[in-house]
Design goal:
With about 425 residues, the chain is an alpha/beta fold. It is built from 19 helices and 13 strands. A five-stranded mixed beta sheet has the order 1-5-3-4-2. A hairpin with a 5-residue loop joins strand 12 and strand 13.
Length: about 425
């Protein structure tokens, strides 16, 4: 009378890469023998990961009454309980235990009824409960999140949990973020009072008081929309997606300087998150622009100013100098011709795609062709700009502005 849920776990691990198999340092009780234990000794384990009340108990009780218990339970010794007949906590088989207790309450069996039980160590009980509940009947996401957290608190690594349940490490990290939501809100989520998107948004904050205030004190229901919850949590922070300062400085440099990034693990966008220290990000951008400004100042301009954002009203007070393009050297002509040839080739390929009515629409191909055409055209423009020059008299009476454009690129005017 073997426990099939453990056999499934072992079989799945056998096909896993060696690097993952090495992580699974426990047999999860698969070597333990089945014992027959009096029903009176069995109680629900505090390590049982399922919090939602089990369903279908009456039907299961009738089935057990008619056919007997066809599968063993899994249990462990309870802390502080010793002796030959000490109680055991059932960590896998909660529905079967509830059905047996229902039969006992009805007087159809008594406490001496022998139940097949596989006894495992307490260290193995949590993982056993998680696998049993996860494989037999889908667990609620809230229960699964708490179970993953309990495994981590027990000393397991995210890699271990990911390998144990054949899921990506990111999935484990996402579950752990949900587990960090206020227990009161997890109860709401568990009882279908909020959506997965809403709990994901609340998980952006680690502050339980803030989470509860945003949910329970919302004056109107629309304030609980995922977008509104995210906006409230990150109101003083900068979204890293498509932000020019982030593109210019880079997240790595910002974090290396001690900056905090509130990661949005539930976004599919790479590096999605929120900058927690806007002042630091702006200072890093300004410092980097100042370094670049030194090279421009060395050319002989009367002044050089830096701005992390274009101020049209400020620039409107100045006129623009007209540069003079010097003649190309023989080498420069060859380089420019090469760039123009690449530009023309990319433009032709893009035009051919648009002109071919027989070809099916392919978004990836079109995007790649457009990107190549834009990149080669920009390369030609930048090369020509290198040939622009100003007279010493012009530079002595004028200055330059180093600005960041919408893409985080430096523009010199």
């Amino acid at each position: 009378m073997e426990d099939r849920s453990f056999e499934g776990a072992v079989a799945a691990d056998a096909d896993a890469p060696d690097s993952q198999a090495a992580l699974l340092e426990t047999s999860l009780g698969s070597d333990a023998k089945v014992e027959y234990v009096a029903l009176s000794r069995l109680t629900t384990s505090p390590l049982n990961v399922r919090r939602k009340a089990p369903t279908g108990i009456e039907g299961l009780a009738e089935s057990i009454s008619a056919k007997g218990l066809l599968q063993n339970l899994v249990a462990h010794a309870l802390k502080g309980k010793r002796g030959k007949h000490a109680p055991l906590g059932v960590c896998a088989g909660q529905r079967r235990l509830a059905a047996l207790q229902m039969l006992a309450d009805a007087g159809r069996i008594d406490g001496a009824y022998l139940v097949p039980v596989k006894v495992v160590s307490e260290a193995e009980a949590l993982a056993a409960s998680l696998i049993e509940n996860h494989s037999r009947e889908p667990m609620h996401s809230a229960d699964l999140a708490i179970a993953f957290l309990l495994l981590i608190d027990e000393g397991r690594s995210t890699d271990y949990v990911a390998a144990l349940f054949s899921v990506p490490v990111l999935t484990v990290q996402r579950r752990l973020k949900i587990a960090n939501v206020s227990p009161k809100l997890l109860d709401v989520y568990r009882n279908d009072g909020m959506s997965t998107e809403q709990v994901n948004a609340l998980a952006l904050s680690d502050d339980h008081a803030m989470q509860e205030r945003l949910w329970f004190d919302a004056a109107q229901s629309w304030l609980r929309d995922p977008y509104q919850l995210r906006a409230a949590i990150t109101s003083d922070e900068i979204d890293v997606r498509n932000n020019p300062l982030v593109s210019f400085v880079s997240l790595d440099a910002y974090e290396a300087a001690g900056g905090f990034v509130r990661r949005d693990l539930f976004s599919d966008t790479r590096n999605a998150g929120y900058i927690g220290d806007a002042a630091l990000l702006q200072q890093l951008a300004t410092d980097r622009l100042m370094v670049l400004a030194q090279d421009i100042a060395a050319e002989g301009w009367s002044f050089v100013e830096t701005r992390v954002k274009r101020d049209h009203s400020e620039l409107s007070a100045y006129g623009h100098l007209s540069a003079h393009s010097r003649d190309m050297t023989k080498k420069e002509k060859a380089e420019c011709a090469k760039l123009q040839k690449a530009r023309d080739k990319a433009a032709e390929a893009l035009n051919a795609y648009y002109d071919d009515e027989s070809e099916e629409e392919d978004d990836d191909k079109r995007d790649a062709l457009e990107e190549a055409a834009n990149a080669t055209s920009e390369a030609c423009d930048q090369y020509v700009e290198r040939l622009e020059s100003w007279t010493p008299e012009q530079m002595a009476s004028a200055g330059a502005f180093l600005l960041l454009n919408h893409a985080g690129q430096v523009v010199i005017e």
